[in-house]
Amino acid sequence: MEKKTQELIINILARPVLLFAGIMCIWYFLAVTNFIGYISSLNYAWVFAGALLLLIAVLLKLLIILYNKTHKIIKIIFLSVIISFSLSFVIIESLVFINARSHKYENADYIIILGAGLYRGAPSLTLLRRINAAINYSNENPDVKIIVSGGTGEGQRTSEALAMARVLENNGINTDRIIIEDRSSSTYENLKFSGELISDLDKKIVISSSEFHLFRAKIIAKKLGYKDVGVLASRTPGILLPNYYAREYFAVLKTIFFD
To answer: Which of 63, 147, 187, 240 sits a CA distance of 20 to 30 A from 181?
Structure first.
């Protein structure tokens, strides 16, 4: 009777859920690729996740048999890892979501636009939205200095900073308000090298970035000694949010333990 119940759970509940999740991961990869117009190497994680879920669905019965034969200590370790991952994921994603809004952004001395990649030498959709948020802010705050932060990525001929500066200039921002930081290759370096260009970290500094990125940016800014920090959120198209939120979990862990 117990064996029959287990088989029903596998066939009616667990396997269909895994199959559906796997198919949705692969569909999401295709949807994001179609939306942005090119294949990002980072998005291949969804293909890998989808293929893994489909494989688990097919081999589910065998995996359960192997699990039941596994030593008790290994089972405890395995379950502990799963529970720890699940709890940390929920906690971090909740903090990312709670902090996904503009805060304390009035009357800044400097605004830092964090890099988000180029495509064919031009700002990516995500980066362009960060730039536009900063342009709107700078139009309302004509004395604010704008730091464009981002180095030259692999395969690129121009830096993110220079590409951002061009967009700012094309939108009427005077060059004497723009400060170029073109050495960085990560959020940590964005803020570290930008901070070195600011004479006094006691100044009011606003970080312009995507909503999903603000929690991590504030953690890094605090680590680097920024004293008076605000954040300006640019909005991300809804179809891209699952991708960025999932990636942010691992990025926040890296920031906490390694940056």
So the answer is: 240
Q: Note down pLDDT in tens along the chain; length 259 residues.
A: 455 565 666 666 788 999 999 999 999 999 999 998 888 778 899 999 999 999 999 998 888 889 888 999 999 999 999 999 999 999 999 999 999 999 998 889 999 999 998 988 899 999 999 999 999 999 999 999 999 999 998 778 899 999 999 999 999 999 999 999 999 999 999 999 999 999 788 899 999 999 999 999 999 999 999 999 999 999 999 999 999 999 999 999 999 998 7
Q: Tell me if the domain spanning 110-257 has CATH number 3.40.50.620.
A: yes
How is the chain split into domains, by residue range?
Answer: 2-69, 110-257
In terms of C-beta distances under 8 Å and separation of at least 24 residues, what long-range contacts does 247-254 make, across chains too?
247/42, 247/45, 248/92, 248/93, 248/96, 248/212, 248/213, 248/215, 248/216, 249/88, 249/89, 249/92, 249/93, 249/96, 251/187, 251/216, 252/92, 252/95, 252/96, 252/215, 252/216, 252/219, 253/88, 253/92
